[in-house]
Amino acid sequence: KKTTTAGDGVAGFQVLPGSSHAFKVSLNGGSAVTEQVVGEIDATMQTALSTMTVTNHSGDGISGVRVDLMRADGKGTGKKLNTDANGVSGFEILPEYAHAFKVSFHGGVYLTGPVENGADVGVQTQLSQIVLATPGESGGPVEGARIDLLTFDGKGTGRRTNTDENGLAGFETLPGCNARFKITHNGDSAVSDLVPCGSILELQLAVTA
Question: What is the secondary structure of 142-154 as a DSSP string?
Answer without folding.
Answer: --S-EEEEEETTS
